[in-house]
Specification:
CATH class of the largest domain: Alpha Beta
Number of domains: 3
Strand order of the largest sheet: 7-6-17-18-19-16-20
Helix content: 25-40%
Number of strands: 22
CATH architecture of the largest domain: 3-Layer(bba) Sandwich
Largest sheet: 7 strands, mixed
Distance between the termini: 37 Å
Number of helices: 15
Structural class: alpha/beta
Shape: globular
Length: 507
Protein backbone atom coordinates (compact mmCIF):
# COMPACT_ATOMS: atom_id res chain seq x y z
CA UNK A 1 0.00 0.00 0.00
CA UNK A 2 2.94 2.37 0.54
CA UNK A 3 4.19 2.51 -3.02
CA UNK A 4 6.91 4.92 -4.12
CA UNK A 5 5.34 8.24 -4.94
CA UNK A 6 8.06 9.32 -7.30
CA UNK A 7 8.14 6.31 -9.59
CA UNK A 8 11.87 5.68 -9.15
CA UNK A 9 13.30 2.25 -9.68
CA UNK A 10 16.60 0.85 -8.46
CA UNK A 11 19.55 1.73 -10.64
CA UNK A 12 21.59 -1.04 -12.23
CA UNK A 13 24.14 -2.62 -9.95
CA UNK A 14 27.28 -0.65 -9.21
CA UNK A 15 29.47 -3.72 -9.40
CA UNK A 16 30.58 -5.41 -12.58
CA UNK A 17 29.50 -8.83 -13.75
CA UNK A 18 32.34 -10.41 -11.83
CA UNK A 19 31.36 -8.67 -8.61
CA UNK A 20 34.41 -6.40 -8.58
CA UNK A 21 33.93 -3.16 -6.68
CA UNK A 22 33.85 0.17 -8.44
CA UNK A 23 35.80 3.05 -6.93
CA UNK A 24 35.29 6.67 -7.91
CA UNK A 25 37.95 9.17 -6.83
CA UNK A 26 36.44 11.83 -4.60
CA UNK A 27 33.11 10.04 -4.52
CA UNK A 28 30.66 9.85 -1.62
CA UNK A 29 28.23 7.14 -0.54
CA UNK A 30 25.20 8.28 1.44
CA UNK A 31 23.36 5.65 3.47
CA UNK A 32 19.68 6.56 3.72
CA UNK A 33 17.43 8.69 1.51
CA UNK A 34 15.67 10.66 4.22
CA UNK A 35 15.77 14.46 4.01
CA UNK A 36 19.16 14.64 5.78
CA UNK A 37 20.86 12.15 3.46
CA UNK A 38 19.23 13.70 0.38
CA UNK A 39 20.39 17.15 1.49
CA UNK A 40 23.98 15.87 1.61
CA UNK A 41 23.61 14.39 -1.88
CA UNK A 42 21.93 17.54 -3.18
CA UNK A 43 24.73 19.83 -1.98
CA UNK A 44 27.46 17.49 -3.21
CA UNK A 45 25.76 17.07 -6.58
CA UNK A 46 25.61 20.84 -7.03
CA UNK A 47 29.35 20.89 -6.36
CA UNK A 48 30.02 18.21 -8.97
CA UNK A 49 30.99 15.46 -6.50
CA UNK A 50 30.11 11.92 -7.66
CA UNK A 51 27.54 10.77 -5.12
CA UNK A 52 25.42 7.67 -4.68
CA UNK A 53 22.52 7.36 -2.24
CA UNK A 54 21.62 3.90 -0.95
CA UNK A 55 18.09 3.40 0.38
CA UNK A 56 16.60 0.16 1.66
CA UNK A 57 13.00 1.23 0.99
CA UNK A 58 11.39 1.58 -2.46
CA UNK A 59 10.89 5.33 -1.90
CA UNK A 60 12.73 8.46 -0.79
CA UNK A 61 11.87 10.71 2.14
CA UNK A 62 11.99 8.30 5.08
CA UNK A 63 9.77 9.48 7.89
CA UNK A 64 9.21 12.78 6.06
CA UNK A 65 7.59 11.35 2.92
CA UNK A 66 4.14 11.88 1.44
CA UNK A 67 1.83 8.95 0.69
CA UNK A 68 -0.60 9.12 -2.24
CA UNK A 69 -3.88 7.21 -2.05
CA UNK A 70 -6.16 6.89 -5.05
CA UNK A 71 -9.91 6.51 -4.42
CA UNK A 72 -13.09 6.85 -6.46
CA UNK A 73 -13.23 10.42 -5.14
CA UNK A 74 -9.73 11.25 -6.40
CA UNK A 75 -6.27 11.37 -4.83
CA UNK A 76 -5.67 11.93 -1.11
CA UNK A 77 -2.18 12.77 0.17
CA UNK A 78 -0.86 12.01 3.65
CA UNK A 79 2.37 12.91 5.44
CA UNK A 80 3.59 10.52 8.12
CA UNK A 81 2.74 12.83 10.97
CA UNK A 82 2.89 16.60 10.72
CA UNK A 83 6.12 17.93 9.21
CA UNK A 84 6.16 21.70 9.00
CA UNK A 85 9.15 23.75 7.92
CA UNK A 86 10.49 26.05 10.57
CA UNK A 87 14.04 27.04 11.35
CA UNK A 88 15.99 29.97 12.71
CA UNK A 89 18.81 29.20 10.25
CA UNK A 90 18.71 31.59 7.28
CA UNK A 91 20.85 29.31 5.10
CA UNK A 92 18.43 26.42 5.62
CA UNK A 93 15.47 28.67 4.81
CA UNK A 94 17.16 29.64 1.55
CA UNK A 95 17.80 25.97 0.77
CA UNK A 96 14.16 25.06 1.41
CA UNK A 97 12.92 27.90 -0.77
CA UNK A 98 15.39 26.95 -3.50
CA UNK A 99 14.22 23.33 -3.58
CA UNK A 100 10.47 23.80 -3.14
CA UNK A 101 10.33 27.04 -5.16
CA UNK A 102 6.95 27.35 -6.89
CA UNK A 103 5.28 24.85 -4.54
CA UNK A 104 5.79 26.94 -1.41
CA UNK A 105 2.85 27.81 0.85
CA UNK A 106 2.65 29.77 4.10
CA UNK A 107 0.42 28.12 6.70
CA UNK A 108 -1.01 29.76 9.83
CA UNK A 109 -0.36 27.54 12.81
CA UNK A 110 -3.20 26.68 15.19
CA UNK A 111 -2.10 23.97 17.60
CA UNK A 112 -4.01 22.98 20.71
CA UNK A 113 -4.08 20.41 23.48
CA UNK A 114 -7.32 18.54 24.11
CA UNK A 115 -7.41 18.24 27.88
CA UNK A 116 -10.39 16.95 29.89
CA UNK A 117 -12.83 18.36 27.38
CA UNK A 118 -11.00 21.70 27.20
CA UNK A 119 -8.59 23.19 24.70
CA UNK A 120 -5.24 24.70 25.64
CA UNK A 121 -2.86 26.46 23.23
CA UNK A 122 0.29 24.65 22.15
CA UNK A 123 3.19 25.47 22.48
CA UNK A 124 1.95 25.76 26.03
CA UNK A 125 1.07 29.33 26.96
CA UNK A 126 1.03 29.27 30.72
CA UNK A 127 -1.54 32.04 31.12
CA UNK A 128 -3.92 30.12 28.81
CA UNK A 129 -3.26 26.89 30.73
CA UNK A 130 -3.99 28.55 34.07
CA UNK A 131 -7.34 29.83 32.77
CA UNK A 132 -8.27 26.32 31.54
CA UNK A 133 -7.72 24.66 34.92
CA UNK A 134 -9.70 27.21 36.93
CA UNK A 135 -8.70 29.61 39.74
CA UNK A 136 -8.34 27.06 42.55
CA UNK A 137 -6.04 24.69 40.66
CA UNK A 138 -4.24 27.67 39.12
CA UNK A 139 -3.49 29.02 42.59
CA UNK A 140 -2.14 25.62 43.61
CA UNK A 141 -0.02 25.52 40.45
CA UNK A 142 1.48 28.92 41.23
CA UNK A 143 2.17 27.88 44.83
CA UNK A 144 3.87 24.66 43.66
CA UNK A 145 6.00 26.62 41.26
CA UNK A 146 6.99 29.10 43.96
CA UNK A 147 8.02 26.33 46.35
CA UNK A 148 10.07 24.69 43.60
CA UNK A 149 11.92 27.90 42.83
CA UNK A 150 12.69 28.57 46.52
CA UNK A 151 13.86 24.99 46.99
CA UNK A 152 16.19 25.25 44.01
CA UNK A 153 17.79 28.35 45.50
CA UNK A 154 18.11 26.97 49.03
CA UNK A 155 18.94 23.34 48.27
CA UNK A 156 19.31 22.69 44.54
CA UNK A 157 18.26 19.23 43.45
CA UNK A 158 19.92 17.24 40.71
CA UNK A 159 17.81 16.99 37.57
CA UNK A 160 17.97 13.40 36.36
CA UNK A 161 14.59 12.19 35.16
CA UNK A 162 11.94 13.69 32.89
CA UNK A 163 9.75 14.03 35.97
CA UNK A 164 12.48 16.00 37.78
CA UNK A 165 12.91 18.33 34.80
CA UNK A 166 9.21 19.08 34.34
CA UNK A 167 8.64 19.72 38.04
CA UNK A 168 11.71 21.96 38.12
CA UNK A 169 10.38 23.95 35.16
CA UNK A 170 6.70 24.17 36.05
CA UNK A 171 5.99 22.74 39.50
CA UNK A 172 4.23 19.47 40.35
CA UNK A 173 0.63 20.57 39.68
CA UNK A 174 1.19 21.62 36.06
CA UNK A 175 3.43 18.59 35.54
CA UNK A 176 0.67 16.19 36.65
CA UNK A 177 -2.00 18.01 34.63
CA UNK A 178 -0.32 18.77 31.31
CA UNK A 179 3.00 17.02 30.92
CA UNK A 180 2.85 13.63 32.61
CA UNK A 181 -0.09 12.18 30.66
CA UNK A 182 1.15 13.02 27.21
CA UNK A 183 4.80 12.23 27.91
CA UNK A 184 3.93 8.76 29.17
CA UNK A 185 1.68 8.21 26.16
CA UNK A 186 4.52 9.17 23.80
CA UNK A 187 7.30 7.22 25.49
CA UNK A 188 5.41 4.27 26.97
CA UNK A 189 7.28 4.57 30.27
CA UNK A 190 6.76 6.47 33.52
CA UNK A 191 8.41 9.88 33.42
CA UNK A 192 10.75 8.94 36.27
CA UNK A 193 12.29 6.31 33.95
CA UNK A 194 13.04 8.81 31.17
CA UNK A 195 16.04 11.15 31.11
CA UNK A 196 15.46 14.84 31.71
CA UNK A 197 17.52 15.69 28.62
CA UNK A 198 14.48 15.74 26.33
CA UNK A 199 12.71 18.27 28.56
CA UNK A 200 15.80 20.44 28.74
CA UNK A 201 15.97 20.43 24.95
CA UNK A 202 12.29 21.26 24.50
CA UNK A 203 11.52 23.75 27.28
CA UNK A 204 14.55 26.05 27.31
CA UNK A 205 13.59 29.61 28.05
CA UNK A 206 10.03 28.81 29.20
CA UNK A 207 9.29 30.40 32.55
CA UNK A 208 6.03 30.34 34.46
CA UNK A 209 6.82 33.58 36.25
CA UNK A 210 7.74 35.34 33.00
CA UNK A 211 4.62 34.11 31.23
CA UNK A 212 2.28 35.16 34.03
CA UNK A 213 4.04 38.52 34.47
CA UNK A 214 3.80 39.22 30.76
CA UNK A 215 0.11 38.42 30.85
CA UNK A 216 -0.46 40.95 33.68
CA UNK A 217 2.28 43.58 33.32
CA UNK A 218 3.55 44.55 29.86
CA UNK A 219 7.33 44.21 29.69
CA UNK A 220 9.94 46.02 27.62
CA UNK A 221 10.11 43.04 25.34
CA UNK A 222 7.56 40.45 24.37
CA UNK A 223 7.59 36.72 23.99
CA UNK A 224 6.61 35.73 20.48
CA UNK A 225 6.11 32.44 18.76
CA UNK A 226 8.42 31.88 15.85
CA UNK A 227 5.99 29.49 14.30
CA UNK A 228 2.73 31.40 14.14
CA UNK A 229 3.12 30.56 10.48
CA UNK A 230 5.36 28.10 8.70
CA UNK A 231 6.36 27.03 5.20
CA UNK A 232 4.95 23.93 3.59
CA UNK A 233 5.09 22.43 0.08
CA UNK A 234 1.70 22.46 -1.64
CA UNK A 235 1.77 18.73 -2.45
CA UNK A 236 2.94 17.53 0.97
CA UNK A 237 6.20 17.67 2.88
CA UNK A 238 7.56 14.71 0.93
CA UNK A 239 7.89 17.00 -2.09
CA UNK A 240 10.99 18.49 -0.46
CA UNK A 241 12.73 15.11 -0.54
CA UNK A 242 11.38 14.21 -3.98
CA UNK A 243 12.64 17.42 -5.55
CA UNK A 244 16.07 17.08 -3.96
CA UNK A 245 16.18 13.53 -5.34
CA UNK A 246 15.20 14.80 -8.79
CA UNK A 247 18.06 17.31 -8.68
CA UNK A 248 20.56 14.66 -7.57
CA UNK A 249 19.63 12.43 -10.51
CA UNK A 250 19.56 15.37 -12.94
CA UNK A 251 23.19 16.01 -11.97
CA UNK A 252 24.07 12.49 -13.11
CA UNK A 253 24.24 10.89 -9.67
CA UNK A 254 22.38 7.80 -8.46
CA UNK A 255 19.67 7.17 -5.91
CA UNK A 256 19.49 3.41 -5.54
CA UNK A 257 16.22 2.22 -4.04
CA UNK A 258 15.65 -1.26 -2.64
CA UNK A 259 19.35 -1.22 -1.78
CA UNK A 260 19.81 -2.15 1.87
CA UNK A 261 23.16 -1.72 3.59
CA UNK A 262 24.22 -5.14 4.95
CA UNK A 263 27.83 -4.51 5.99
CA UNK A 264 30.04 -1.48 6.54
CA UNK A 265 33.63 -2.61 6.07
CA UNK A 266 36.37 -0.88 8.04
CA UNK A 267 40.15 -1.01 8.30
CA UNK A 268 42.76 1.22 9.96
CA UNK A 269 40.32 3.92 11.01
CA UNK A 270 38.60 4.10 7.62
CA UNK A 271 35.43 2.80 6.06
CA UNK A 272 36.65 0.84 3.04
CA UNK A 273 33.38 -0.20 1.44
CA UNK A 274 29.77 -1.22 1.87
CA UNK A 275 28.02 -4.48 1.09
CA UNK A 276 24.61 -3.75 -0.39
CA UNK A 277 21.71 -6.16 -0.79
CA UNK A 278 19.60 -5.69 -3.94
CA UNK A 279 17.10 -7.70 -5.93
CA UNK A 280 20.09 -9.02 -7.90
CA UNK A 281 21.99 -10.21 -4.82
CA UNK A 282 24.78 -8.72 -2.75
CA UNK A 283 27.52 -6.47 -4.06
CA UNK A 284 30.25 -4.27 -2.68
CA UNK A 285 30.46 -0.53 -3.40
CA UNK A 286 33.22 1.86 -2.41
CA UNK A 287 33.87 5.57 -2.21
CA UNK A 288 36.22 8.07 -0.63
CA UNK A 289 33.69 9.44 1.85
CA UNK A 290 30.67 8.01 3.65
CA UNK A 291 27.63 9.61 5.27
CA UNK A 292 25.20 7.53 7.34
CA UNK A 293 21.65 8.42 8.36
CA UNK A 294 20.66 4.83 9.18
CA UNK A 295 19.92 4.09 12.87
CA UNK A 296 23.11 4.44 14.89
CA UNK A 297 22.42 1.17 16.70
CA UNK A 298 22.12 -0.69 13.40
CA UNK A 299 25.27 0.96 12.05
CA UNK A 300 27.27 -0.41 14.97
CA UNK A 301 25.89 -3.93 14.50
CA UNK A 302 26.71 -4.16 10.78
CA UNK A 303 30.34 -3.08 11.07
CA UNK A 304 32.83 -5.56 9.61
CA UNK A 305 34.93 -6.57 11.44
CA UNK A 306 32.44 -6.50 14.29
CA UNK A 307 33.07 -3.84 16.94
CA UNK A 308 34.17 -4.72 20.47
CA UNK A 309 31.65 -6.39 22.78
CA UNK A 310 30.98 -3.21 24.78
CA UNK A 311 29.92 -1.39 21.60
CA UNK A 312 27.51 -4.18 20.63
CA UNK A 313 26.10 -4.20 24.17
CA UNK A 314 25.64 -0.44 23.96
CA UNK A 315 23.73 -0.82 20.68
CA UNK A 316 21.38 -3.29 22.38
CA UNK A 317 20.86 -0.87 25.29
CA UNK A 318 19.49 1.99 23.17
CA UNK A 319 15.85 1.92 22.13
CA UNK A 320 13.55 3.77 19.76
CA UNK A 321 9.82 4.49 19.86
CA UNK A 322 7.66 3.58 16.87
CA UNK A 323 4.77 5.44 15.23
CA UNK A 324 1.71 4.06 13.50
CA UNK A 325 -0.43 6.52 11.59
CA UNK A 326 -4.06 5.80 10.86
CA UNK A 327 -5.00 7.76 7.75
CA UNK A 328 -8.71 8.46 7.34
CA UNK A 329 -10.50 9.82 4.27
CA UNK A 330 -13.68 11.69 5.20
CA UNK A 331 -16.83 12.92 3.53
CA UNK A 332 -16.69 16.18 5.48
CA UNK A 333 -15.47 19.73 4.76
CA UNK A 334 -13.46 20.15 8.00
CA UNK A 335 -13.01 18.38 11.34
CA UNK A 336 -11.13 21.07 13.30
CA UNK A 337 -9.34 24.33 12.42
CA UNK A 338 -6.09 23.01 13.91
CA UNK A 339 -2.82 22.20 12.23
CA UNK A 340 -2.23 19.79 15.14
CA UNK A 341 -4.39 18.63 18.01
CA UNK A 342 -2.68 16.86 20.93
CA UNK A 343 -4.90 14.45 22.86
CA UNK A 344 -3.91 14.01 26.50
CA UNK A 345 -6.83 11.84 27.66
CA UNK A 346 -5.59 8.43 28.83
CA UNK A 347 -8.67 6.57 27.61
CA UNK A 348 -7.92 7.64 24.01
CA UNK A 349 -5.06 5.56 22.64
CA UNK A 350 -3.74 7.93 19.99
CA UNK A 351 -1.57 10.90 20.90
CA UNK A 352 -2.25 13.53 18.28
CA UNK A 353 -3.66 14.11 14.82
CA UNK A 354 -3.55 16.66 12.05
CA UNK A 355 -5.83 17.52 9.16
CA UNK A 356 -3.77 17.73 5.92
CA UNK A 357 -6.32 19.99 4.22
CA UNK A 358 -5.60 22.66 6.87
CA UNK A 359 -2.01 22.67 5.62
CA UNK A 360 -2.71 22.61 1.87
CA UNK A 361 -5.94 22.24 -0.11
CA UNK A 362 -4.00 20.03 -2.57
CA UNK A 363 -3.88 17.24 0.02
CA UNK A 364 -7.51 16.30 -0.73
CA UNK A 365 -9.27 15.84 -4.08
CA UNK A 366 -12.05 18.37 -3.42
CA UNK A 367 -13.15 21.01 -0.94
CA UNK A 368 -16.10 18.84 0.12
CA UNK A 369 -13.71 16.21 1.49
CA UNK A 370 -11.07 16.12 4.18
CA UNK A 371 -8.76 13.64 5.89
CA UNK A 372 -6.97 12.98 9.17
CA UNK A 373 -3.55 11.60 10.06
CA UNK A 374 -3.85 10.06 13.52
CA UNK A 375 -0.66 9.09 15.36
CA UNK A 376 -0.16 6.20 17.76
CA UNK A 377 3.07 5.88 19.73
CA UNK A 378 4.18 2.33 20.42
CA UNK A 379 7.04 -0.16 20.75
CA UNK A 380 7.76 -3.46 19.05
CA UNK A 381 5.52 -6.17 20.45
CA UNK A 382 3.25 -3.97 22.59
CA UNK A 383 -0.55 -4.02 22.34
CA UNK A 384 -0.74 -1.15 19.85
CA UNK A 385 2.01 -2.43 17.55
CA UNK A 386 0.35 -5.86 17.62
CA UNK A 387 -3.01 -4.53 16.40
CA UNK A 388 -4.04 -5.25 12.83
CA UNK A 389 -4.83 -2.49 10.37
CA UNK A 390 -8.54 -3.24 10.71
CA UNK A 391 -8.37 -2.99 14.51
CA UNK A 392 -6.46 0.28 14.45
CA UNK A 393 -8.76 1.94 11.93
CA UNK A 394 -11.82 0.75 13.87
CA UNK A 395 -10.44 1.94 17.21
CA UNK A 396 -9.55 5.34 15.72
CA UNK A 397 -13.03 5.85 14.26
CA UNK A 398 -14.66 4.93 17.58
CA UNK A 399 -12.50 7.43 19.49
CA UNK A 400 -13.33 10.19 16.99
CA UNK A 401 -17.05 9.35 16.97
CA UNK A 402 -17.79 8.42 20.59
CA UNK A 403 -15.13 10.15 22.71
CA UNK A 404 -14.32 13.31 20.76
CA UNK A 405 -17.52 13.58 18.69
CA UNK A 406 -15.61 15.05 15.76
CA UNK A 407 -17.12 12.84 13.06
CA UNK A 408 -20.02 10.47 12.39
CA UNK A 409 -19.61 6.90 11.10
CA UNK A 410 -21.23 7.67 7.74
CA UNK A 411 -18.61 10.35 7.04
CA UNK A 412 -15.80 7.78 6.88
CA UNK A 413 -14.84 6.90 3.30
CA UNK A 414 -12.01 4.58 4.31
CA UNK A 415 -8.74 4.31 6.16
CA UNK A 416 -5.35 2.61 6.18
CA UNK A 417 -2.24 2.47 8.33
CA UNK A 418 1.44 3.26 7.88
CA UNK A 419 3.97 1.81 10.31
CA UNK A 420 7.12 3.83 11.00
CA UNK A 421 9.56 1.87 13.18
CA UNK A 422 12.25 3.66 15.18
CA UNK A 423 10.70 7.09 14.70
CA UNK A 424 11.89 8.60 17.99
CA UNK A 425 15.14 7.90 19.85
CA UNK A 426 14.10 7.16 23.43
CA UNK A 427 16.07 8.99 26.13
CA UNK A 428 15.62 6.24 28.72
CA UNK A 429 17.48 6.80 31.98
CA UNK A 430 21.12 5.89 31.55
CA UNK A 431 21.12 6.20 27.74
CA UNK A 432 24.06 8.62 27.80
CA UNK A 433 26.76 6.02 28.51
CA UNK A 434 25.88 3.52 25.74
CA UNK A 435 25.37 6.39 23.30
CA UNK A 436 28.82 7.79 24.13
CA UNK A 437 30.32 4.32 23.68
CA UNK A 438 28.89 3.91 20.17
CA UNK A 439 29.71 7.44 19.09
CA UNK A 440 33.30 7.09 20.28
CA UNK A 441 33.67 3.92 18.23
CA UNK A 442 32.09 5.39 15.10
CA UNK A 443 34.13 8.56 15.54
CA UNK A 444 37.33 6.57 15.03
CA UNK A 445 36.54 6.34 11.29
CA UNK A 446 37.63 9.65 9.85
CA UNK A 447 35.88 9.26 6.47
CA UNK A 448 32.46 8.50 8.04
CA UNK A 449 29.95 11.11 9.26
CA UNK A 450 26.65 10.37 10.99
CA UNK A 451 23.63 12.62 10.40
CA UNK A 452 19.91 12.89 11.05
CA UNK A 453 17.66 11.80 13.89
CA UNK A 454 18.34 8.10 13.34
CA UNK A 455 22.00 8.44 12.57
CA UNK A 456 22.91 10.54 15.60
CA UNK A 457 20.33 9.10 18.03
CA UNK A 458 19.21 12.61 18.81
CA UNK A 459 15.67 13.95 18.92
CA UNK A 460 16.11 16.39 16.06
CA UNK A 461 13.41 18.25 14.23
CA UNK A 462 13.44 17.99 10.44
CA UNK A 463 15.43 21.20 10.05
CA UNK A 464 18.10 19.91 12.43
CA UNK A 465 18.40 16.64 10.51
CA UNK A 466 18.72 18.53 7.24
CA UNK A 467 21.30 20.84 8.79
CA UNK A 468 23.49 17.87 9.75
CA UNK A 469 23.26 16.66 6.14
CA UNK A 470 24.20 20.11 4.86
CA UNK A 471 27.20 20.42 7.17
CA UNK A 472 28.40 16.88 6.43
CA UNK A 473 28.46 17.76 2.72
CA UNK A 474 30.33 20.97 3.46
CA UNK A 475 32.92 19.02 5.43
CA UNK A 476 33.54 16.83 2.40
CA UNK A 477 33.91 20.00 0.33
CA UNK A 478 36.71 21.19 2.61
CA UNK A 479 34.99 23.09 5.40
CA UNK A 480 35.16 22.21 9.08
CA UNK A 481 31.89 21.90 10.99
CA UNK A 482 31.10 20.13 14.24
CA UNK A 483 27.85 18.27 13.64
CA UNK A 484 27.38 17.79 17.39
CA UNK A 485 26.64 21.52 17.69
CA UNK A 486 23.44 21.20 15.66
CA UNK A 487 20.37 21.52 17.92
CA UNK A 488 22.54 22.55 20.83
CA UNK A 489 21.49 26.21 21.22
CA UNK A 490 20.47 27.59 24.58
CA UNK A 491 17.22 29.22 23.49
CA UNK A 492 13.95 27.37 23.33
CA UNK A 493 13.51 26.57 19.68
CA UNK A 494 9.92 27.82 19.31
CA UNK A 495 9.82 31.09 21.25
CA UNK A 496 12.00 34.11 21.84
CA UNK A 497 11.89 37.57 23.42
CA UNK A 498 12.11 40.52 21.05
CA UNK A 499 12.25 44.28 21.67
CA UNK A 500 9.02 46.25 21.42
CA UNK A 501 10.09 47.75 18.11
CA UNK A 502 10.67 44.37 16.47
CA UNK A 503 7.84 42.25 15.11
CA UNK A 504 7.75 38.53 14.58
CA UNK A 505 8.16 38.46 10.83
CA UNK A 506 8.55 35.52 8.55
CA UNK A 507 11.75 33.58 9.01
Amino acid sequence: MDAPSNGRRPAPGAAGANGAALRQPGSTLVMGAGPGGLCSAYVLSKAGVPTTVLEKAPFVGGLARTIRRQTEHGEFRFDIGGHRWFTKNDELNELFREVVADELLWVNRISRIYFDGKYVDYPLKISNALKAIGPVVAARAMADYGRTRVQQRVRPTTIESMEDAYIDQFGETLYRLFFQRYSEKVWGLPCDQMSGDWVSQRSKGMSLVTAVKDAVIPSKGKVVSLIDEFMYPRGGFGRFSERMADAVEAAGNQIRLNAGVEKVHRENGQVTGITVSTEHGQERVEAENYISSIPLTLLAKIMDPAPPADVLAAADALTFRNIITVNLMLRKRQVTPDTWLYVHDRNILFGRFHEPKNWSPAMVPSDDLTSLVVEYFCSFGDHIWSMSEEELVGRTVRHLVEDLRFITPDEVIGGFTIRAPRAYPAYVMGYEKPLATIRAFVGEMDNLQIIGRYGTFRYNNTDHSIETGLLAAKNILGEHHDLDQVNADDEYHEIKRVPESVGAGRS
